[in-house]
Amino acid sequence: MSDVCIVGVGIHPFGRTDGVSGIEQGVFAVRQALGDAGIDWPAIQFAYGGSDAAGNPDTMVERLGLTGIQFINVKNGCAAGGSSLASASMAIQSGQFDLGLAVGFDKHPRGAFNALPSEYGLPDWYGEAGYMITTQFFAAKITRYMHEHGILQTTLGRVAEKAFRNAVHAPHAWRREPVDLQTILDAPLVSDPYTKFMFCSPAEGGVALILASEKKARELGKPLIRLKAAAMRTRPPGSFEVFAPSIDVTRGGSATNIASADAFRLAGIGPEDIAVAQLQDTEAGAEIMHLAENGFCRDGEQEQWLAEGRTEIGGALPVNTDGGCLACGEPIGASGLRQVYENVVQLRGDGAGRQVPGDPKTAYSHVYGAPGVSAVTILER
């Protein structure tokens, strides 16, 4: 089976862009990706697009051109972007197409996400009791994890400090001012143990990736950034996920465990072979837990990893090199694709002040969302 390659990338800056709709931000990203690939819109044979709150992605054809293209909308929570990419990859692997698009965008209102219990098969009382408030759930989840594995609040702060420091060098990031560790720790609590600097914010932005068969990529004369794996999985029995009404006495794995293992199997490599990683970090503790869930370390080892700087740009495994969700914010439809965009930038050597040293040749991305879905991709140059 021929490899799928990423031949063009585009991004609309994340954050707040008054007067520009989510769809317009997606169109901006698509046009940038087309220019990067050196092709015109009519060359695109199919598209998958994800958005949670900013309209149907297929309507962007009104701005890009009415070519009759097959354009399928994807809505899969925080994994919408990763799911769009996995779907686009499968379309090319099937042999039916050799040039396609994965695009995601969103434009969320200020304030917390307003998820409804009925959307997740839960009764109204679950929301009335406040259990749909994600900041509370994630705070409870990390508190349990910290107790079980000896993680300190200082380590949460180090994750956030690294994010804002990395984002200084990422033009697409929202929060591009460094914040020192003590300021992060002393900031007002949102949900104990998380201070305001330890959560990401709903945001705006758009990302587009153009995928091609290896044959087509060679015809275009593009560097071969190969999509070696794209896996999306749902939760297994006994997992403990956002919007879960309870926790099982007998604990199971997680959607991330499954997606990660499948991605490594598909790519034919292991965690030790990854040079740079983008891990879901909607809150500081998520990056810590996901380091272990994706197989990069054991539960509890993160305390030492962060203290020794192993996840820094020049560390053993640079993580969230553009600041991740903490610094970029999270427009749901675009967030997972932003991670892949960043990995393409890193593998091309175009990261400037945030560039991972040593000529990285492999890159990993992981996105997680409600009610327990994960998508993982592995790129190779």
TrEMBL record:
Residue span(s) of domain Thiolase C-terminal: 254-378
Pfam families on file: Thiolase_C_1
Domain of life (superkingdom): Bacteria
Protein name according to UniProt: Thiolase family protein
Organism: Novosphingobium anseongense
Organism classification: Bacteria, Pseudomonadati, Pseudomonadota, Alphaproteobacteria, Sphingomonadales
